[in-house]
Amino acid sequence: MTTSHAQERETTEGTVYTVTGGDWEEVAEAAARADDERIIVNMGPQHPSTHGVLRLILEIDGETVTEARCGIGYLHTGIEKNLEYRTWTQGTTFVTRMDYLTPFFNETVYCMAVEKLLGIEDAIPDRANVIRVLLMELNRISSHVVAIATGGMELGATTIMIYGFRDRELVLDLFELITGLRMNHAFIRPGGLSQDLPPGAVDAVRGFVKKMRKNLPEYDALATNNPIFKARLQDVGHLDLTGCMALGATGPVLRSAGLPHDLRKSQPYCGYENYDFEVPTTDTCDSYGRFLIRLEEMRESLRIIEQCLDRLEPGPVMVGDKKIAWPAQLALGPDGLGNSLDHIKNIMGTSMEALIHHFKLVTEGFRVPPGQVYTAVESPKGELGAHVVSDGGTRPYRVHFRDPSFTNLQAMAAMCEGGQVADVIVAVASIDPVMGGVDR
Predict the structure, then answer these.
(1) pLDDT reading at 319 higher than 60
(2) Are 425 and 436 spatial neighbours (Cβ–Cβ below 8 Å)?
(3) Considering only CA atoms, which of 272, 139, 148 is closest in space to residue 208?
């Protein structure tokens, strides 16, 4: 038997080996030992659903995922940097666009940070706080139905997708009634709200609660005990409590591991300590548990919304300090765009000093004392935090967000490695990442 010998050379197709002489059985055995089945697959960054442009780099051996990584940054908007070039109030028009499925949470956490720097937390009118909670809980429902709808669509469950987007439309109709926009509202401002609830809003929200109480059981009937749905979600995307703590996962991912951690209970804000609601948990540590938690959280949100409507008392929706408060009663002109003549007469007719002050407030903005704060709220995806730094000027020195989608995506590898390729889609859907919040 002669000695096997192989020469190698690099080509555009990769390394090419030329085998000469030797025992061909030995060569065949060596080739069989080589792991040619292991390949690298790019999943994305084009995504057929609404998680956004997320790229998953998977190393697979047959159908088994041996390594999984996230490729992010395809939706980078520079929102955090842009905030340094706008006044404190103008910042709300940027932050509302980050996680575009949870705009009111982005606005609230940013405004809470500005209010903390200003030292006016206790001066925020009760009505403004109640409306903030109302809008956030409506937003929690709209975010969760999209999570369930898109997750179902990726599994081929198109009916649950139709149900989810049907119910989201109901919430967006309310947002349009209250703020004038379906998304990107900039309605919550430092010091309160841009304006009060319009006529008919309370009745519309009560009608929505009644309708949603009828619609939610349809998700149960369609999916909760559906053997096909359960088979695709149970024991998929497994992450236990130790893994959640190590990776900083929060929201439904953490609560599916059995820990009832919710900032609305542990660090109440906007008066959440005065509302009666439960924090749903499961001990399944899997995608199915996260689905059940989102379903139950929507029921709890409906409870909170009803309590908000009962707590609404007449009163202002903006702090009384005119050096901070933008006009909170903006009457529209006949074109539905500009300010009405009555509103302009009111500003101009008060005094020349009032007119000058209004002009400076709108164009230059108010000053915020130097310092830095961190505030956090419980968004539908987990802990959403804002680290805001002021150098004493009319614009932020630095704003950085702790977005739960970004942090929770770290768990993707732990959830997917060792599982099947098809289960990667289920695991990522159970995290419910939105790339607008990841890339910022």
Answers:
(1) yes
(2) no
(3) 139
| 1 vs 24: CA distance, rounded Å | 10
Question: What is the distance, to the nearest Å, from the Cα of residue 51 to the centroid of all Cα atoms in its chain?
Answer: 10
Residues 6+ apart with CB under 8 A from 240: 257, 285
Q: Mention every residue, 6+ apart, whose C-beta is less than 8 A from residue 110.
A: 91, 92, 95, 386, 388, 399
d(CA 78, CA 98): 10
CA distance 127 to 160: 36
Between the two ends of the chain, the Cα-to-Cα distance in Å is 65
- Quote the distance between the C-alpha of residue 257 and its chain's center: 20
CA distance 8 to 25: 20
Q: CB of 306 within 8 A of CB of 298? A: no
Picking from 370, 333, 388, the residue whose alpha carbon sits closest to that of residue 190 is 388
Q: Are 430 and 253 in contact (CB under 8 A)?
A: yes
- DSSP H or E segment with residue 6: strand 5-11
Helix H segments across 314-433? 341-350, 352-363, 404-408, 412-416, 421-431
- Selection from 120, 301, 281 nearest residue 205 by Cα: 301
Neighbouring residues of 185: CB distance < 8 A, sequence distance ≥ 6 = 96, 103, 104, 107, 175, 179
CA distance 307 to 291: 25
Angle at 326 between CA 325 and CA 328, to 5 degrees: 100
HSE, side-chain direction, 13 A CA sphere, residue 7: 4
Rounded to whole angstroms, the maximal C-alpha distance in the chain is 107
Average pLDDT value over all residues in the chain = 85
* Distance separating alpha carbons of residues 375 and 402, to the nearest angstrom: 10
Please tell me the pTM assigned to this model.
Answer: 0.85
Q: Each residue of 207-217: pLDDT tens digit?
A: 999 999 999 99
**Confidence (pLDDT) at 339:** 60
**Alpha helices, DSSP H only, in 313-367?**
341-350, 352-363
Strand partners, 399: 388
d(CA 274, CA 330): 30
371: amino acid identity, one letter: G
148-168: average pLDDT: 88
